[in-house]
Amino acid sequence: MSDPIADAAQKHPAPEGLVYTYGTAGFRTKADVLDSVLTRVGFIAALRSRALKGKWIGVMITASHNPPQDNGVKLVEPLGNMLQEDWEVISTEMANKVSPEHVSQYYHDIAAKFKIDLNTPARVVVARDTRASGARLLGCLQDGLAAAGAEVKEYGFLTTPQLHYMVRCLNTEGTKDAYGTATEQGYYEKFGAAFKTALRGKKPSGSLTVDGANGVGGPKLKELIKYLPSKEEGGLEISVINDNVIKPESLNVDCGADYVKTNQRAPPSSKAGPGDRCASLDGDADRVVYYFKDEQNVFRLLDGDRIATLVASFLGDLVRQSGLADSIKIGVVQTAYANGAATNYVEQNLRLKVDCTPTGVKYLHHAAEKLDIGVYFEANGHGTVIFSHDTLDTIEKYEPRNPGEKEAIEVLQACINLINQSVGDALSDFLLVEVVLAHKHWGPQEWLSTYTDLPNRLLKVLVNDRTIFKTTDAERKLTSPEGVQAQIDKEVQKVRQGRSFARASGTEDAVRVYAEAATKAEAEDLARKVSEIVK
Ligand code: 16G
Ligand code: ZN
């Protein structure tokens, strides 16, 4: 009897001796060992869709900010969320099945375990970034999806957040939660119109240079620009640089959000002068950081923490001005990497609640879902704002009592439409930042002046076995190896305003050490000492 699952697995055999893990950002490794994984992900996507009675599931082929020779794949849940955790485990097990018979057996075992009717339709949305290996890997995925009998909607090249958007649109079409039209044009129209409404005639000052990391974000941004008001219409002048997708080997090389954040410098190709606003996307456009050169020509970074504080303060003002402060509470979600000064600013100046979660978008997103308005950003530029059902309802039904309230509520509503609520989206995030700056009549210097970052240092430490590093308290404390945390605490106490933590990376074979203190020298010294301890 023919077994299409086993046949497809046979066509894309798993390399012997490799172990794959569905990590914080899906499967991610060297592209040339991913063929078998993609086929198996096709099986999983079909099963997941059937388990959800035929809802659309997303599959994105990308390795984000990783080097050009890498690739990866991740699955997206019906509302655009990251894959549910128990299915991460299933995906990992499936990816590590070697013999075609075992693959097929596991496929049927999962179907039985979750009472999945294999005759239910399976629907899967697929897109990829601009990596050279993407076309081949897409073929491997298609073989898996075809063998599992899935209906497939293919979008070609998309940014990761665009794919999340498509998934959410398709699953909410025709319902009261309809999110938009599930086409690229629908995406540009929705965000373009929201940007215009949210500006409300306020003119963004100067221009913005956006670095596309030579990835999919560049061409997609150029498309989006066609739907934004032009400079003459009171819009924003945007120039796009590092948008060479014809040369995939240049992806993320000396450019992009990760380069800027890690090296604390502008891409060498940047020609921006003092005071010019610049933003960098990462390779799949789900991260964005801002930066500029100050009057002394010193590079200044405005990272995810800064975006979170800027946005939280603006939304806080809008909620107050619309008379809703008593019924809608805003909270900010950060990770341990957030600068202590940012946390302090949110708590003391903005008087908002701060939650801290482990690293990884899914943790922040979950925590933000519990808030009326949850602003979440990782320092590296991943993030968005989400509004609870009740909050949306309250805003919708609210009758403004005067023109001031009316204006505030209209801007708030436009911001809700401007923010991609399915996932952090670099394009939508930078448009939001531009709206806030325009309303506040701020340039990057005023934005930077809201608080002063504590000097900090991030180090990567190579260890024998990173799995022995176990943490608690949102990764801020080590529970294992024994005694290490006490040693860290001792060093922290020796410096002023000291804070430090060590955690095993989820994407690299290393331990990361973060330290901050009152001065640069103390922060660097603390980071070094803690690295010695964990080594
Ligand atoms: C992944 C995460 C990112 C996190 C990073 C940490 C998603 C979509 N991506 O890229 O949020 O900041 O991992 O990497 O969740 P690390 O564990 O190596 O420090
Ligand atoms: Zn990314």
Helix content: 40-55%
CATH class assignment of the largest domain? Alpha Beta
Taking strands numbered 1, 2, ... along the chain, how are they ordered across the largest sheet? Answer: 1-3-2-4-5
The name CATH uses for the topology of the largest domain is Alpha-D-Glucose-1,6-Bisphosphate, Chain A, domain 3
Rg calc? 23 Å
The CATH superfamily of the largest domain is known as Alpha-D-Glucose-1,6-Bisphosphate, subunit A, domain 3
What small molecules accompany the polymer chains? 2-acetamido-2-deoxy-6-O-phosphono-alpha-D-glucopyranose, zinc ion
Q: Please outline the major beta sheet.
A: 5 strands, mixed
- Give the N-terminus to C-terminus distance in angstroms: 55 Å
Number of domains: 4
Tally of contiguous helical segments: 18
The residue ranges in which pLDDT falls below 50 over 5 or more consecutive positions are: none
Number of strands: 19
Strand proportion: 15-25%
Shape: globular
The helix-and-strand class reads alpha/beta
Mean pLDDT comes to: 97
Quickly give the CATH architecture of the largest domain. 3-Layer(aba) Sandwich
How would you characterize this protein structure?
The protein is of the alpha/beta class and 535 residues long. It folds into four domains: 4-157, Alpha-D-Glucose-1,6-Bisphosphate, subunit A, domain 3 (Alpha-D-Glucose-1,6-Bisphosphate, Chain A, domain 3, 3-Layer(aba) Sandwich); 186-302, Alpha-D-Glucose-1,6-Bisphosphate, Chain A, domain 3 (3-Layer(aba) Sandwich); 304-448, Alpha-D-Glucose-1,6-Bisphosphate, Chain A, domain 3, CATH 3.40.120.10; 456-534, 2-Layer Sandwich (TATA-Binding Protein). 40% of the residues lie in helices and 19% in strands. The strands form five sheets. It has a five-stranded mixed β-sheet, sandwiched between helices. Strands 7-6-8-9-10 form a five-stranded mixed β-sheet, sandwiched between helices. A four-stranded mixed β-sheet has the order 12-11-13-14, sandwiched between helices. A hairpin with a 5-residue loop joins strand 13 (373-377) and strand 14. The chain is globular, with a radius of gyration of 23 Å. The model has no long low-confidence stretch (mean pLDDT 97). Bound molecules: 2-acetamido-2-deoxy-6-O-phosphono-alpha-D-glucopyranose (16G) and zinc ion. The site of 2-acetamido-2-deoxy-6-O-phosphono-alpha-D-glucopyranose has 13 residues, from loops. 2-acetamido-2-deoxy-6-O-phosphono-alpha-D-glucopyranose binds at residues 24-25, 359-361, 378, 380, 382, 505-508, 512.
